[in-house]
Amino acid sequence: MTDKPHKIDIQNNLSIHYYESVSSTMDIARKMSQSNCPDHTVVIAKKQHCGRGRMQRQWQSDQGGLYMTWIIRPQLKPDQCFAYTFSAALAVVLTLDQLFKITAHVKWPNDVLIKSQKIAGILTETQFESNRFNYLNIGIGININNQIKTDSFEAISIVDMVQTEVDLNMFTQALCKNLKKHFSNIDANNILKLWKMHNCTLGNHVRIVLHDCAIEGMAVDVNQEGALIIEKYNNQMETVTYGDCIIEKARCELL
To answer: What is the CATH number of the domain that holds 234?
Structure first.
């Protein structure tokens, strides 16, 4: 692990810190956030040794992927922080379409899929006091030229889709441009509308896995705080704020 970036790039009011290899970009970003780094500071690494996904699971972070954390000093209320997670996923979807004409969908709460295969994941970490954010760090992992080996879920890389090595710098610049545009004009209501237009969760039978139980039923909506509303098989409605979302595979692959 290294504690010093090999390059710092200032562009479009972004301070981008590039690392060869880190434990995780979230670890570096946390230290920088607590040291009062500027809004829209970005940490990017070529490789992570301890990349994290949801529920503290390891995120495979081999050379060839893109691993970044974006540091934000949000103006939104804490109950609207979902808008940043949703917005980050939408920026990935937009970038894939712009550069490669690849159609991807967002899956609640924080994944980007191509059909049923995962191509990107989003992770957020926040600190706030007196109902105001000190910072919100958004970690993004995208499979680009790396090959994924996991039995936990189906995954895919951009290189698998385009059948040629992708220019990582080109993709990073395009994604950062889209992320900056989204994050600089954040509006929770508009983001929620866009998310619903590009999602593959609503209208499907889902299973939400929590730490100690699972909830099954039809995903019918996402509310104004980003929580998933499920109609269970006994016709009762349940609002879920977190958890792993497993979509009925046959339905997902039709999208």
So the answer is: 2.30.30.100
